[in-house]
Amino acid sequence: MTGDAKMNQHFDPAIVTAPARLAAQKATIGYDQRVISTDLSVEIPDKGFTVIVGANACGKSTLLRALSRLIRPSAGEVMLDGKAISQYPAKEVARRLGLLPQTSIAPEGITVADLVARGRYPHQKFIRQWSVEDEKAVMGAMEATRITPLSHRLVDELSGGQRQRVWVAMVLAQQTPMLLLDEPTTYLDIAHQIELLELLRVLNQREEHTVVAVLHDLNHACRYASHIIAMRDGQIVAEGAPADIITAELVEEVFGLPCIIIDDPLAKTPMVIPRGSIPHPAPDTP
Description:
Elements: H1 3-10, E1 22-31, E2 34-44, E3 49-54, H2 60-67, E4 75-80, E5 83-84, H3 90-96, E6 97-100, H4 112-117, H5 132-144, H6 160-173, E7 178-182, H7 190-205, E8 210-214, H8 218-224, E9 227-232, E10 235-240, H9 242-245, H10 248-255, E11 259-263, E12 270-274
Parallel strand pairs: 3-8, 3-9, 6-7, 7-8
Antiparallel strand pairs: 1-2, 1-4, 4-5, 9-10, 11-12
Helix pairs in contact: 5-6
């Protein structure tokens, strides 16, 4: 038997890992002359729920903006479905991934329903305007985010939390296989934070959307993410399943926060308990 035959005898195409649909390759990213990350490479797990965590100004949002083509690397590439994302027309990118940026400004005088409907723009063509599918997508997105009763209200009149849910609905109406969300729980009270994260988990697990979110709450990240990317000073210091990478040592390295890690009593995922600077009294013993 020849050497090639021996190699082919053990080759199993089923175990070959396909390249990730979305990835950064040796990317240098930043703003104008200010470099945030250098030679950064990362693959986003397909059909996973990835959460990017790290201290303020560590490069989380910059990475997300590069992955969504809002900023272009000065070196290296962001790859989407095997091709540099910069080579796609804007509408084609918008049909493949939806982005919720950190700050969004609605046009003056626009209603909730009209703003959510703008999520259908990537699907519009010169000979195909508004359709039954578009209407269903908008109504479904508003129902999922519980803003249907607000549909005729002006966006300018809403609270910060209500506006945030409207922006999320617009991204959902886009109906893309990949969702990128920069601090999606901003302005939301705790009940709506959990509601949104549960919705994202449903989209991920039941409908197999790839979800990437920047979150500040480590315990939310541990509970909902299947994959965590931890960043510091523009670089990735750890990535993997929450149970595999979230340790007291990593939290202190990334955030400078002394803590202990216990099991979440419900989800059985890591739970971060800050030590704080003031000693806590020992519990009374019976």
